[in-house]
Each structure stands twice: as structure tokens, then as C-alpha cells.
Amino acid sequence: MSLLEVEHVGFGYSRDRRTLDDVSLALERGSALGIVGESGSGKTTLLRLLLGLNRPSTGSIRFDGDRLDAGNAAFMRIYRRKVQAVFQDPYSSLDPRQTIGRIVSEPLRALRIEGDHRGIVAEALTSVGLERGIVERYPHQFSGGQRQRIAIARAIVARPQLLLADEAVSALDLSTRVRIVELFQRLATQMTLVFVSHDLGVVAALCDRLVILQQGRVVEAGGTREILSRPAHPYTISLLNSVPRMPA
Amino acid sequence: MSLLSIEHLTIRTGAQPLVSDLSLTIAPGQRLGLIGESGSGKSLTALAAIGLLPPGLSAGGSVQLAGHEVVGTRDANLTRLRGAVAATVFQEPLTALDPLMRVRSQIAEPLRRRARRDGRRIDVEREVVDLLGLVAIAEPERVARSYPHEISGGQRQRVAIAMALACRPQLLIADEPTTALDVTTQASILELLDRLVRERNMALLFISHDLPIVSGIVDDVIVLRRGEAVERGAVARVLTRPEHGYTQALVAAAHRFDAGLERAP
Questions:
Q1: Nearest to B212 among A177, A241, A244 (CB)
Q2: Any idea where the domains of chain A sit in the sequence?
Q3: Which residues from A are below 8 Å from B186, CB to CB?
Q4: Does B257 contact A205 at a Cβ distance shorter than 8 Å?
Q5: How far is B244 from chain A (nearest CA, A)?
Q6: Tell me, what CATH number does B172's domain have?
Q7: Are B217 and B206 in contact (CB under 8 A)?
């Protein structure tokens, strides 16, 4: 059984426009899936559905065989423990008035996870390459890359099975981006990853599976290697040809 | 004579230097790239070049546009140079365009200014449509009648380029002109800039954090780090045989994301 199954999902924010149209995909445990699309492709909307922030108007999403039910508070509490997210902007995703310790331990409190929170937080910080001693400090004392590490520490502190990342390295400088992608690569060996991005280069470096979205529809899906070496859909081909390359 | 000559430029906020002792020149027809990450001072350098530094920042050293000193010159005396010598395209076309003005009126403004400058009469309506055609907008009449929010991001950037060209500048300054755009749109805007700069024999100062993009459009490049030029040279050499440690790290990082795409056709 796949960890995540999206079946014929449709969604529209307004009645006259479909943002997602008949989207299906399956995600195996331990794999890293890249969802690639340009603006308006529906990639962020799909991620919102996976998080239970919106409900599909048609079709269904299953996690570990259970149908995702955004209206069921008991289900969602268990779901949030298993599925966590990291977003694009490390400046707006951390509460500036909270210490790093409070921020990273928030899921532990929200999910009422018992145990030595200090120790769990320290472990999460260490695993994203931060000092455990930063718990008393505040977000403004950290750079963009460090903030994204803090956001990732918060996402993994409750040991989720699935990590969802929405353009999680797009706002970072190139040299920082490389290091955060390396961090995601390491995390991908411990959990299942869905990485939403417009950047094919980053996704190619990180994901073994690939879904290409265009205007709310899946135009191509499969192994990253296969798709990049033999793109079948004209849109995938134009996307690939548009990426500027380094001189050899 | 150089179109742009920057000598020992230092930009400060209070005592803190944001750009330190930067020198560069751009000759007619030359294409120079400024590469840098956030905080490198690349955009401030572009603003200083046309005398548009935000309040609170002070420039030292010398910036000359076609032989005219920019540093310390009153704004009223700079408007003649802006447009005629250098025009700028910024990253975000939505903020560069006036949301309350139709595209036609926005492009007409620099056209009229140029006509006054040259002391001749022009058919503004026709020139607006011609310019929109030049930047490869498919339905120039419709877009001319539109407000910025009614057209796509790519079209907005084309309009911003048309406005810059309306002044017939000798030097085009493009500050991250494709960073806010989708990758397929980006490719077509880069192609457009490349063609226009060639056809009109303009010089280009191209500012970007993106190494592969810069490599495709300029001849020479300066790498900025925290306001200091750490390396300069022909772009082909700098991006294939970087000498400074910082450039080497940037190039290696860019190759990391290029490598996964190598299998592509």
C-alpha cells in the first residue's frame, strides 16, 4: 500500500475555475517526490489539500490507507503528527516573539506529545545542523538559511512520516540553497518527502520521483531520471529547454 | 568615452559600508554582468549608477554617465541623463508600473520626453504600438489599452522593457529582470533582451544572482561579495575556471543543480 494516494482529485477556489483537475498520484514510503510546475499550475493548492487546509471537491486523498478527512478533528490530530510542512519564506514562517526553543517545541505541545521536550528539541536542532544552545534566542538573530533550518527542525521534531516542502529553498541564496538541499537529502533517507518547486534543477538533485503539473493537470509523472532523459510531454520538454545551463 | 564609469564607489548607511571601493567601466556596446547573492550590493550599485540611491544611503567616489558626474548631482540635473544615456528594468514589473495608468500612457510618457528632447513631433499612439510590437507582445493594441493588472507577469516585464527602450538609451541596466518570472517566460524575456541589445547596439549592465542566466547574456562579469568585487573577467573564464574561493563555491553550487539536468536532451 502506498503511503499517500491521491485519486482523481479536483478542486476550485471559485465555482467557474478549476485549480486542480483530475489529479492522481501515488507516493511510496521512503521515496522523494518532486511536484514541479509554474505559477498557476496548482502545485501549492495540491500541497494545501495534502495538508488538509482545503478539501478536494472531487476525488479522494488517502494516507496509509485512511481517507484524509479535514473535518474530523481526532483524525487530523493524528494526521498532523505524521505529516509536517516547511514553507518558502523563512522570515514569515517563524513567530518573531517566540524563542527558538518555543518555536521548535510547538508541535510537541500542540500534539500533546509526552516526554523530555528539551531533549527532543535539542536532538531536532542538532540533526538540522544547529547548536542546541540557541533555544533562548529569537528568529531575528538568524540568517535566512539558519531560519529555514529552524523551520525544518520544527517540522521534524514530532518525527513525522511525511514531510511536505513548498518552495522550501527558493528564497535562499545559491550557496545556502545547496546546504539546505543537502539537509533535505539527508532527511529523505529517514522519511518520505514531497518537495514542491518550480526549480527543476533542485528537484532533480533531490527527488527520485517527479510529477509535472500544468494548469491543474498532471501532464507527466514517473521516475525523475526517466522523465529528464526522455521527456514525453511537449510542456515538459519546453520546461527543460527553458532552464539556463552553466557553460561546460 | 565610457557610457558608465564607476571609480572607487563606496555606499554607506551611517558608518556601515554596503559597497566598498568598487570600480567598473562599460563602453558602448559592452555587456557586463554583476553577480552576487543577497547583501552583495549589486542592486545598490545599479541604483547608484543612475543616482537613485534611497534616502539614508550615501555614495562616495565617482559615478559618471557619459562623462557627467552622478554622485552629488541634484536630481533635476540627472533626469536628462536618465533615459537618454541609461534606462533601467527592475525585477518586479508589477511595482515598476503604475497600477492606475493604462500601459499606453506609461509608455507615452518617456516617448514624449524624448520627442521634446529631440525637438520633433511624434505620433505617440503609433509609436506605443510599434514599441509593444518590438518587445514581441502579440496583441499590442489590446495591451496598450490595458491596466498592468490585466496582463500577465511576462507581458508586464515586456512593457517595462518597452518603457526603457522608449528613451532610446545607450545603456540598458537590467536588475534581476527575470527573477520574478516563470522559467519558460524567463527564457523568452532573456531571448528578447539579447536580441534588442544586439539590434540597437546598446550596452548592458545585467545584474543577477543566477550564474547560468548571466553566462548566457554577458561577455564580462564582476563577482560581488558583501560589497566588494572579489573576481572579474570574461564570463566564460570566470564560470569555468574561477580563481577566488567564493566564486569557486558559487560555481560548484550552480553545477550541483545543473548536474541533475545533464541527462536532458
A1: A244
A2: 4-242
A3: 242, 244
A4: yes
A5: 15
A6: 3.40.50.300
A7: yes
Q: What total of structural domains would you count in chain B?
A: 1
Coil, helix or strand at residue B26:
strand
- B258 contact A CB<8A: yes
B130 and B141 Cβ atoms separated by less than 8 Å: no
Contact A247 B236 (CB under 8 A): yes
CA distance B208 to B211: 8
Residue recorded with cell 540597437? B200
Protein fold of A4-242? Rossmann fold (3.40.50)
Q: Which of residues 95-114 of B touch A (CB under 8 A)?
A: none
Look up the ipTM and state it: 0.83
In this prediction the pTM is: 0.89
pLDDT digits (tens, 9 = 90+) for B126-172: 999 999 999 999 999 999 999 999 999 899 999 999 999 998 999 99
Query: Does B264 map to a domain?
Result: no
Residue A70, chain B, CB below 8 Å: the answer is no
Phi, psi of A214 (to 5 degrees): -140, 125
* pLDDT band, residue A24 (cuts 50/70/90): very high
| Three-state secondary-structure class, residue B197 | helix
Q: How far apart are CA A187 and CA A156, in angstroms?
A: 9
Say if CB B252 and CB A176 are below 8 A apart.
no
Q: For residue B21, give its domain range.
A: 4-259
Considering only residues 111 to 130 of chain B, which have any Cβ-Cβ distance to chain A shorter than 8 Å?
Answer: none
Residue A225 and residue B251: Cβ atoms within 8 Å?
no
* Rounded Cα gap, residues B113 and A209, in angstroms: 55
Are residues B239 and A246, on separate chains, in Cβ contact within 8 Å? yes
* CA B38 from centre of chain: 16
